[in-house]
Amino acid sequence: MHVSHSRFAVHESFGLERPLESGTLESTLESPRCAAPRMRANVAGMLALALAAAMQFLPVAAAGIPDTAAIVPGPQVLELELDPSRPTWNGNLRARLSVRRETRRFELRLVGPNPNRVEIVGPTGRVPLAFGWYGRDTLLVETVEPLAPGSVTFSVSFTGVFAISGPGLSRPDARHAVLERGAGRVVPLWPTGTPETPWRLQVHAPAMYDVIADLPRATRSLQRDWGTWEFASGTPVPADSLRVEVRPLVPHAAKKRGGATRRPRRR
Q1: What is the C-alpha separation between 212 and 259, in angstroms, rounded?
Q2: Model-level pTM?
């Protein structure tokens, strides 16, 4: 499924002003992991191209050492698009970041999904940046200009493939999807660790399914053939406590009328 077909491209709650701008990664492009050797061979040219495009993949050899203590995450919102009938899923994490000291680079740990878009919005608007893989499971983000101390909003959208079982997002069959122990696999991990924080969880799934989670459900809404389930922890909880199950919707049994059901008399 192409990223551009995702509901995330037009869903207002993601803060996306328009569908997939230049700099986002279409699924027809080569994976950054596969392209890494060629990227290292032409670091200077690729870096110039990436920074000019503002949001392209960063040449990992030119990344330098990130300041792991400069960024501290705050409350986070995780949004997932889960359709058990499809092999892939889409996600978006949005977090409020506290910038402790001036920095241009920071990293997150993410195993499995490929990032499609990274965005930072500061007091003066969107921050030009580049992003890419550093090693096998570290997503490195570098801004064109240093981030000043203060508060910014960070978001990353990504696409993954359902596993058959195990931690992360799995699909035991074409009618069920399960999220468990998703830290680092569905929820990106920060270098200082993902602290316990109040979570908001939004799940988009076809209306023929029901979504349950280990968090109190706040709202459920339907729009055509898709539904949105929103959950909120209320109190700080660890990322690994976010457990979600998508399963076929079971209609409520019709209430019996007139008391107990009687068998018809034989004539």
Answers
A1: 32
A2: 0.70
